[in-house]
Amino acid sequence: MCLAIPAKILSLDAATGNATACLDEVKVEISLALLDAADVGDYVLVHAGFALCKLDEQEALATLALFEQAGFGHPA
Known about the structure:
Blueprint: E1 5-13, E2 18-23, E3 26-31, E4 43-47, E5 50-55, H1 57-69
Antiparallel strand pairs: 1-2, 1-4, 2-3, 4-5
């Protein structure tokens, strides 16, 4: 089973096409290679270090709240 987690983009690196994102209060480097465009503040669905798609903020926060209810981390 695979798990993708919502993350908020904190900064972009135009030179590499990567971004720094926040996953449950941890900053991680993610690739934006699979997206057409993303901006600071966007929520993206992250799996294996790749942003798969952009998410609506409400959807991302609702998903993070479900993870919290299940005992996995806390909402951003």
